[in-house]
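Whether sequence alone determines local backbone shape is best considered at the level of individual chains. The sequence in question and its structure tokens are set out directly beneath this paragraph.

***
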Amino acid sequence: MIQRMSKTRLIKRILRSRSELEALVNNLTSTEISGITSPDGWTVKDHLAHITVWEAGTVAMLRKQPRFLAMGLDPVFVETSNEEEINQRIFELNREQTLDEVLEKFHHTHKQMMQTIQELSEEELYHTYSYFQPDDPGQDRGIPVIEWVKGNTYDHFDSHAEWIRKLIER
């Protein structure tokens, strides 16, 4: 059962998690961000690019724009791929970006996310995916879109912050 969350509480939770992630990253050197690589080949920079792409897709979804195109992905590829394959493609498409490019997109996309959430009513946050993406009903699992927002903001930030901590402790 999905527990209802107010828009105000959602925003506060997103901001807190994002602040913690940014504090973690801001305490790193550019060498730590771009130079330390995990066994799967990811750097902190790659984690930030990954977060940004998923957040951009959520912004597009909420704005009733093509979600996967906003993520730089071919919708046909997405339909025939699992999450691991999608994440690998995101990694491949973004790994050559400079740190400055990644950070600029990271901040800009999050600003767009917060503006988009502010523009939505609390009622809209409890509509399902197909309300926002009627041409992509395959993604609708009948859950409120607020769950997609949580999963691509604070839940995602917290997960990657943990991976980043482990990466820099290596």
Summary: Residues 41-169 form one domain.
